[in-house]
Amino acid sequence: MAEMKSLPEVLTVGEVATYLRVSETTVWRWCSNGRLPAFRIGRSWRVRRSDLELNIDRAFPDADLPGYDALSAPGAQ
């Protein structure tokens, strides 16, 4: 997965979807319902990289620990 710091400061729905390996529809839905903090430019959603990092940290608080396996984390499919 790409290093988070190499991403632009403001991300498109497509960039977020690619980084998280989910569909653009999923990211669009998260933006629309407020699950992922985002703002609109015209008809397009944009996400601040810092907001995305914060959401990832909140969803997986132990992810930085050695030996952590996100696939076996609670709630992982």
Q: What are the low-pLDDT stretches, counting only 5+ consecutive residues below 50?
A: none
Q: Helix-strand pattern, N to C?
A: EHHEEH
Per DSSP, the total helix count is 3
Class based on secondary structure composition and strand pairing: alpha+beta
- Can you give the helix content as a percent range? 25-40%
Strand order, biggest sheet?
Answer: 1-3-2
Average pLDDT across residues? Answer: 85
Number of strands: 3
Cα separation of the termini: 19 Å
Alpha-carbon Rg, integer: 13 Å
- Biggest β-sheet, characterized? 3 strands, antiparallel
Tell me the layout of helices and strands.
Elements lengths: L9 E3 H8 L3 H10 L5 E3 L2 E5 H11 L18
Antiparallel strand pairs: 1-3, 2-3
Q: Can you characterise this structure?
A:
- By secondary structure, the protein is of the alpha+beta class.
- The protein has 3 helices and 3 strands.
- It has helices at residues 13-20, 24-33, 49-59; strands at 10-12, 39-41, 44-48.
- It has a 3-stranded antiparallel sheet with strand order 1-3-2.
- The longest helix is centred in the last third of the chain and has 11 residues, at 49-59.
- It is globular and about 40 Å long.
- The model has no long low-confidence stretch (mean pLDDT 85).
Give me some keywords for this one.
alpha+beta, three-stranded antiparallel beta sheet, 3 helices, 77 residues
Summarize the structure.
The chain is of the alpha+beta class.
